[in-house]
User: What shape does this take?
Amino acid sequence: MVTTAIETVNLAKIFPGGVQALNSLDLNIRTGESVGYLGPNGAGKTTTIQIFLNLLRPSSGDVFIFSEQLKGQERKIMRRIGALIELPGFYDNLTPNQLLRHICRLYRMEQGVMNQSIKEILDLVQLTEVRDRSIGTFSTGMRRRLGIAQVLVHDPELVIFDEPTNGLDPKGIREIRDLIKTLNKDGKTVFMCSHNLPEVAEISNRVIFLKNGNVIEDRQMREFKSRLSSNIIELKFIRSLTEKEKKNLNSITNVLNVVYDHSIFIEYQGSLDTTHQILQDLLKYNFPLYYFTPRLMTLEELYLQLFGKEVI
Amino acid sequence: MTILNEWKQDYYDVWLNIRFEFLKNWKSKRSLVAAGISVTLSSLFYLVPLLTGSDFPTEANEFLATSTGLINYILLLNAIFFGADAINGEHHKKTTLLIYPLPQRRSVILFGKFIMQLLTSWGVILIYYLITGTETVLIYDVNALTVDMLKSILFSFLYMGALLSITFFLSALIRNPAISMALTFFFFFLLFPTLNTLLLMIDFDSSWILTNYSAFIIKLFRFPSDIFGPRHLRSPDDIDFYLGIRICLIYTIISFAGAWLFTSRKEI
Ligand SMILES: Nc1ncnc2c1ncn2[C@@H]1O[C@H](COP(=O)(O)OP(=O)(O)OP(=O)(O)O)[C@@H](O)[C@H]1O
Ligand SMILES: [Mg+2]
Assistant: This one.
């Protein structure tokens, strides 16, 4: 049965000092979804999940998790969530084993279940060998894997990650991405903040774009991917275009969108025939063209369009 | 029923946090250093005369009063070691991001922390008294240990509670651990004593100033009371022992309430 995992109604957050980090946010995440929460620096991603996790209080609006109001039921709700926010501190004197035991006890896991669960999770994140070593001696990658272990040790229904692969090497990134995909396949709801587009494209089945505390796009990944298969042509002209020429450029058949940057990009959909047709039209209108390079549109370019230039 | 159940959960969570804090203290250098300082200072009064060949005081109480004179520093050291960064240290090290989203109230973390840090501080104090007590028996005899020893310990414990509570409050109020540590020093070495002097100058009641009562720990020996004896110490600048207890408790409770308020209300 599909139910709501996270719902926000008119959620707003204004920090003391006046920064409006979130602006009347309405989200609705269903159970079983894997959501990528994308946005440039300062968009309000971390703020959003800190509100979900009771680290920040909303200035106004409501949060419902598993259809229950978060406010007043934090402890009950947190039992069903596992979260990793940026890179938290771990107690350097303790060992992973000691830390995880404390956490399991807070989740009221029974001794036998706890031992089994810790053993399995340490295996999964490959920390078994160092389970009795002080966390203070750990590298960033090991700490992040410990963070993942702490998220999963109590088998939560909803997992929330904030930039889970930050600071990892390529192998580490691969492992974490695969792990998160597996989690979603196993039925867990995933909510992941990121400003890494390829990551979201790979992991998530829904993507929500945030900018300045507002949702500016909310799409199913497959629907988005059709736009990803848009073609793009990069054009360069020997001089800048007149207003009339710009108008002509927009009116060429099949052209969906024109972006003016250091070059001019036109976005269109269609086959090689369409590409050929566009070239013919460009020549017909007598554009001062010297560079014409068609290719597939990348997610980065789509992002660039949505967010202007402040990318990644 | 549900409220009762919630409370039961909370109690258990407090217990888990006490255990967790114990584990952290056990493995931290601070507890070791604090215990080491306690051992060193309390041994000085025995070892120095022994090594230099000078005489011990003729009266056991004189020895006890001199020796416990340093307990004040142990108390303050405990407060700084175990209280000054208790709350803001967690923010500083970003461990709040780990423990706050866990299914537990923040107040539960605070209670667990306070109880364990108080017990640890008491342990450090007890080491001091145990060594001093042993020395007294060695130099004088067992009868030299009177009920004043117990009173002194009890008072040290209560005074410790007040100190720790105030440092917890400062730690919850101020974001920067270095500043809250400095403020703790400032409070107990400068602010309270200066205030006291000023109040005495203008003949204003200064009996509410906590630091006035730390002298009890020593005075008890310098002006011994009868066993379970009169409420008042036989001393010229007489201070009421029971008033001292009340003042300590009041400081403890008010500061702890403040710490509680700030930990649960402040964000992140
Ligand atoms: N504690 C705070 N006090 C004041 N302003 C804050 C605080 N935390 C965040 N902000 C501001 O709120 C806005 C949103 O910040 P947030 O950390 O949520 O962004 P983000 O999307 O996670 O960015 P990033 O990609 O850099 O992690 C920013 O303008 C930030 O400066
Ligand atoms: Mg962030």
